[in-house]
Amino acid sequence: MGDNNNNNNNEIREDENEPIPPFKCPEWASKPISNVYLEIIKNGVNIDRVDISKDKFTVFGRSSEVASVLLDHPSVSRRHAALVYHGANNRFYLIDLQSATGTQVNDEQVKPLTPTTVKENFTFKFGSSSKHFILKGTVNTNPSSSSSSSSSSSSEPKTVTCRHLLVKHQGSRNPSSWRESKITRTKERAIAKLNEYRATIISGSATFEDLAHKNSDCSSAKRGGYLDPFKRGQMQRPFEDCAFSLKVGEVSGIVDTDSGVHIIERLA
């Protein structure tokens, strides 16, 4: 799952022979109290997730000696950045560890060694890597609510209700639909179409329901993409993980499953 880039202009300039000092955890760091995680997006597709709830900090980089999240890209430093939770402030901070090519939060370059706030749904990336990380699950990290955090129902609903818009491609497990008997489009083309639909929805030029009704390759298209309420274990894992992480009214990024690629709108 590497994202190598052979462009020499993006290669890091650090001395690979120098020893890598371990990240020194700040005294103010503490362990998150909820199931926070990172969604990993590559080329517009949700490809993985990383649980960051078990440690005070998470280090990103190319070296397995010091990094817990590895990025196989020449522009990423061996020890590039660290994401740290500050319990007293109820906030995550991303710290660029004087990387060779920099760190971006919501497309803005951050200052080295300066803790930068990262909130729910903030996106960050390292160097020229095509992978983006999105912070999820922070809504229950407030220490003041710890007395009630023992209730699992407070952290996640038992069921969710969603719409979705599915675009199949030639690699889908069943490359046909009510719209096309044989689907030959590439996965890249399917993703491009979904990105266009999502941009149209976000801009307000069309509703999710209308676009799903006209363009979804799922039989739910006749209901505007509406899906009956479902619980964990009823959908493909990437789909349900995304659906349960969304807020009511929120539209997801692209979700990749065996059926094809989707966007999801949570209704309830």
Short description:
With 268 residues, the protein is of the alpha+beta class.
Structure characterization notes:
The protein has 268 residues and is of the alpha+beta class. It folds into 2 domains: 8-148, Tumour Suppressor Smad4 (Sandwich); 157-266, Chitinase A, domain 3 (Roll), CATH 3.10.50. The chain has helices at 187-203, 208-215, 237-245; strands at residues 37-42, 45-51, 57-61, 69-70, 81-86, 91-96, 103-105, 108-109, 116-118, 123-126, 131-136, 159-167, 226-231, 254-257, 260-266. The strands form 2 sheets. It has a 10-stranded mixed beta sheet, sandwiched between helices. Strands 4-3-5-6-9 form a 5-stranded mixed beta sheet, with no helix packed on it. Strand 14 and strand 15 (260-266) form a beta hairpin. It comes from Dictyostelium discoideum (Social amoeba). It catalyses: [protein]-peptidylproline (omega=180) = [protein]-peptidylproline (omega=0).
Distance between the termini: 34 Å
Could you say how many structural domains there are in total? 2
How big a fraction of the residues is strand? 25-35%
For the biggest β-sheet, the strand order reads: 8-7-10-11-1-2-14-15-12-13
Poorly predicted tracts of residues: 4-13, 140-154
Helix-strand category: alpha+beta
Q: Based on CA inertia axes, which overall geometry fits?
A: globular
Radius of gyration: 20 Å
Mind telling me the CATH class of the largest domain?
Mainly Beta
The averaged pLDDT comes out at 86
- CATH topology term of the largest domain: Tumour Suppressor Smad4
What's the helix-strand series?
EEEEEEEEEEEEHHEHEE
The total of helices stands at: 3
CATH architectural arrangement of the largest domain: Sandwich
**Helical fraction:** 10-25%
